[in-house]
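Internal QA ticket QA-208
Title: Verify multi-chain structure generation after dependency bump
Assignee: T.L.

Test input:
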Amino acid sequence: MAEENVTFTLPDLGEGLVEATVLEWQVAVGDRVERNAPLVEVETTKSAVVIPSPKEGRIVELHAAEDEVVAVGAPLVTFAVAADAPQAGIVGRVPTEEARPARRVRLRPPAD
Amino acid sequence: MTELIERDDAATEPPTVELSMQQAINRALRVLLAEDPATLVFGEDVGALGGVFRVTDGLQKEFGDQRVFDTPLAESAIMGMAVGLAMNGWRPVPELQFDGFAYPAVDQIVNQVARMNYRTRGAAPMPITLRLPSFGGIQAPEHHGESLEALFAHTPGLKVAAPSDAAEAYSLLLQSVRSDDPVVYMEPKARYWDRGPVELREPTDPIGTSRIVRHGRHATLIAWGAMVHRCLKVAELAAEDGVDLEVLDLRWLKPIDAAGLAASVSRTRRAVVVHEAPLTAGLGAEVAALVTENCFRDLAAPVQRVTGFDVPYPAGPLEPQYLPTIDRVLFAVQRTLEY
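Actual output:
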């Protein structure tokens, strides 16, 4: 499957914060991560927060080492994502579908 | 996107392409913007961003920021502006980003958009198509999973459409925007990523017609939007038990195809209507009434309704329990078979 690299930059985690310190990566290069899985714990001047993964994909590069300070808007992590995979909108998730949905109710054809 | 069929004479045979529903709506908007310079696309994030679901992706670049533009986060203003533009000869295609945020614009939609043509004795038609990402199924927060079809179908002066797949999304949008009447075009978010073949041709079925998406003889499942796909799954499972279900995609929720409903149910003698909206005063009640009026002597069982519950739309994790499940639909079918 064709992949493309997508780089995620450090978002402003509060109101008007300019930087954050990487405390602990919860993923390593080569890992496959699900969307919304814990990605990295960072500390701002307000609090320590865990950033969830914005993408489903494979980790290609971590742009900062632990204890390193990252500016808001600077690259944080690069993912390889499937180029033609459905991407969720800003709200919600792409529904998944079972090829053979589970069922409990059985039917009997009518006599007529 | 993949061109499935390449023909030498593309001018006479429109190509069939495989598109997601998002892409199909985008293609239809491109056709509509290109064919009529009065057509305008606007709403929150539809311009520079290309829409939160990528539905308007690339349109501003192609048609310019005078025809595809972002608005403030103010639904009443978006619809109020559509009214003014329509009165001045434009053909507005506003988007309200999510179903639940149409409520702040209900005054404009019900009191202005729906009535202006009537109020002015036809001097000010409202060729407005409100694109409304609708229904649930993507586990989004509150206000992002509502089904407002009964409210809009109940409002005289509005037409209401709800496509169920990419091909239908393409043709219903062309018809909606070209109509000089206002149309609420409800896009089933849960099917946005669903891919299917889309014939890039002019729509042939008139506004207000339903379609049979699966033929069967024991009962008719009636649905619209994302529930059509669910009913097709139910029909596949029922077939394993030797029960042969017909699936009718209502697609136009106003005007409703009473004749199409009657033709199907007269043959199958049993009907189950499935929708996401709550039960009480939902559109299923209207469908049940029409079927009963027109097929009373043919019916082998009362019309069954399988719907959301009479509760506020639940938080994402509860959505699978709220939306009509396959088992709930199967159970309703069994009730009609055993009646």
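Spot checks passed. Chain B is about 35% helix and 20% strand.
Status: verified.
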